[in-house]
Design brief:
- By secondary structure, the protein is mainly α.
- It contains 7 helices and no strands.
- The chain has a single domain, classed as Tetracycline Repressor, domain 2 (Orthogonal Bundle).
- About 80% of the residues lie in helices and about 0% in strands.
- Helix 1 crosses helix 4, helix 4 packs across helix 5 and helix 4 packs parallel to helix 7.
- This is TetR/AcrR family transcriptional regulator.
Length: about 140
């Protein structure tokens, strides 16, 4: 893997750990930069904004959710039960996802600077649901 790919992967892992430690609302750019061992210039070149990085972190969490739902769905599932089962399996994933639990607990107190993140999460939710619904 390239140095760039390693840097991005490490930044995502460390950013997730940092958010789990302090939460979304208490996140501070300077502390995040120390945690991922990155200058502001490099950070903005790779991620654009703090929201850009957080969106990437949560996108990976939603990718894991989609895989979990698809692997948990019964192949013989009746069409009329599909939506119910997708939601049920999603809730099972959320119960285990500390990151998403933290996001949903803080979502209503997040200020305007998190608008792009909230919009992205809404899109991720829709994408996961629609992707899984296609498999019914």
């Amino acid at each position: 893997m390239s140095k760039e790919a390693d840097f991005i992967r490490n930044a995502l892992v460390e950013s997730k750990a940092y958010v789990l430690d302090v939460g979304f609302k208490s996140l501070k750019l300077e502390e995040l930069l120390l945690r991922i061992a990155c200058s502001k210039t490099k950070f903005y070149a790779y991620f654009g904004t703090v929201n850009g990085l957080l969106i990437m972190v949560l996108k990976e969490e939603y990718r894991q959710m989609s895989l979990f739902i698809r692997s948990s769905m019964n192949e013989e599932l009746r069409k009329d039960l599909c939506t119910h089962n997708i939601i049920k399996i999603r809730d099972m994933f959320l119960d285990k996802s500390i990151l998403l639990t933290r996001y949903f607990n803080e979502r209503n107190i997040m200020n305007q600077r998190f608008f792009a993140l909230k919009k992205a999460v809404s899109n991720f939710e829709s994408d996961v649901f629609n992707d899984c619904l296609k498999r019914c």
